[in-house]
Design goal:
Layout lengths: L3 E10 L2 E11 L4 E6 L5 H8 L7 E6 L2 E2 L8 H4 L1 E4 L11 H7 L6 H14 L1 H5 L10 H13 L5 E5 L7 H16 L3 E5 L3 H7 L2 E6 L2 E7 H5 L2 H8 L2
Parallel strand pairs: 3-8, 3-9, 6-7, 7-8
Antiparallel strand pairs: 1-2, 1-4, 4-5, 9-10
Length: 235
């Protein structure tokens, strides 16, 4: 049994059929990435797993339990965290307050312990602990969004476009952190426009085109697939 199993889901925005009969799975300990052009259905798929959207058809199970109909605010208690596209931090709250918001399912003692681990991974957040989120740089805001997601100690961390808008050096730093988190036992489902970086760290990948899975396989194979290289890697 896979940790996360998505089977034949259809998702609509009104009359728009955004995701068409998509199936994919994530095994415990993996990094799985969804790549594709804008509008391919990548973020919609993540938001559906997170409970922000409800599929019209299909099933979603996490550790054997159905997630369909489970509201988004109950996902953290099940061990699922979403770091959303655009970071979505609380601009007027301090770094500490943003992190505390990610720990609403935990006891104060658990939250304190986890916050210290977040600061070990993101030293810049420790330095800015009393600074308002809206005054941080783009890279620091991404670190804060990831740190906030980690505060619930997720089994599955879903990352939606973590490199968006970041300078190349910061992109490398964020991807290095993703690999460390995975090495330390966090399973990761990654949506990313930077297909080359995503494929370089993932175990498996799914290529989405116009709401459907067009190709899938080992990330290393897709990284060297001629069609994928021409479409998404500039090769």
């Amino acid at each position: 049994m896979s940790m996360l199993e998505i089977s034949n889901i259809d998702v609509y925005y009104g009359a728009i059929h955004a995701v068409r009969d998509i199936s994919f799975h994530v095994e415990e300990g993996e990094i799985v990435t969804l790549i594709g052009a804008n509008g391919a259905g990548k973020s919609t798929s993540l938001n559906t797993v997170a409970g922000l959207l409800r599929p019209k058809n299909g099933t979603i199970t996490f550790e054997g339990e159905s997630l369909v109909g489970v509201p988004a605010h109950k996902m953290a208690a099940k061990g699922i965290a979403l770091c959303p596209e655009g970071r979505r931090i609380f601009q007027d709250m301090t770094v500490r307050e943003n992190l505390e918001m990610g720990a609403f399912t935990r006891t104060d003692a658990e939250a304190k312990e986890t916050m210290e681990k977040v600061f070990e991974r993101f030293e810049r957040l420790r330095e800015r602990v009393n600074q308002r989120g809206g005054t941080l740089s783009g890279g620091e805001q991404q670190m804060l969004a990831m740190g906030r997601a980690l505060m619930c100690k997720p089994k599955l961390l879903m990352l939606d476009e973590p490199s968006m808008g970041l300078a190349p050096l910061l992109v490398k730093e964020i991807f290095d952190i993703i690999q460390v988190l995975n090495d330390q036992g966090t399973t990761i489902l990654l949506v990313e426009q930077n297909a080359s970086m995503a494929l370089s760290i993932a175990d498996r990948a799914y290529v989405l085109e116009t709401g459907s899975v067009a190709r899938y396989g080992a990330a290393s194979d897709l990284l060297h697939d001629e069609r994928v290289r021409k479409a998404y890697l500039g090769g």
